[in-house]
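Students often ask what a holo structure prediction actually looks like on paper. The answer is less mysterious than it sounds. You provide the chain, you provide the ligand, and the output is a string of discrete structure tokens encoding the 3D arrangement of the protein together with fe (ii) ion.
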Amino acid sequence: MTALLREVEATEPQGFSVAPFAANKRLQVVTLTAETIAAFDQAIAEWPLQALEYKPFLRYAVADKLDALTGYSLGKFLNATMRDRDTAAFLLQYEGQPEVTEGELRTEFEIKLSTAISHIIGLPNLDAMYGKYYARFTVLNDDNSDSYLRQAHRRMELHNDGTYVNERTDYVLMQKLGEANMEGGESLLLHMDDWADLDKFYRHPLAKQDIVWGAPKSKNVETKVKHPIFFEEDKNGKPHMLFIDQFAEPQNMAEGIYLYEMGESIEADENFFRVRLPVGSMLVVQNHCWLHGRDKFVSHPELSRELLRQRGHFTK
Ligand SMILES: [Fe+2]
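The corresponding structure tokens follow.
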């Protein structure tokens, strides 16, 4: 057991509870109490979301309000969880309701909550697709976009985020803002230490060779970047990875086949698990040791799902 895990166990949660996720005990389910949510709602009521967008320091003030309500035990727990490779992921949900229970103001509350969580663990990068520190997007039944992000009827393969940007993407936060007529579409997760073929691909001669990565037009990222799949090791010498099937641009047959076989192996691995996210909840994963994806939906003409994401780097 790592020192960090001992630290997590020594931290007595105040204003929230913790339980391991049923299908995979690495994932920590964090539930804020109704009292914490009501007090947080009140504490941040003076700041509309727009104020947080205009004044970056307010995002830290919001984060501090939430952490203070838990006697700073929430920040301790979340940071220790994210830095322990054996866990490195949490699903955060809450009991009770904020004062405004529906409509755009309710959604603003959810965004303020994910802003608090994101700033407790780090600093979100500018999301080039949306032009803010977060991105909101909708998945509908019909979609003509140029990547699989918003396409409902197919599985979005397991991948890491941040493959085609130069900024570090230590964590990914995915929040469910709204949903109607949805069946299927669960989040998919696979920890790379549970991937049966990890060693085969990590020991491969191409494991640490640069690969070229580009992005489709909608991402608003013009330049290409180069980095290996296994781009660094953590403090214990275990690999961190950056892989996504759609945006790798192999330059020769050997790279093409290595990437193809890696994609096939990850998709065939049986150790992935599904997570259903209730509206208002969020999933946060350490991006370099967790692969994430999304299962396909059942078609419905009125199907809709609104999501928010924040991707950032650790600051502690
Ligand atoms: Fe992603």
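The longest helix spans residues 103-121.
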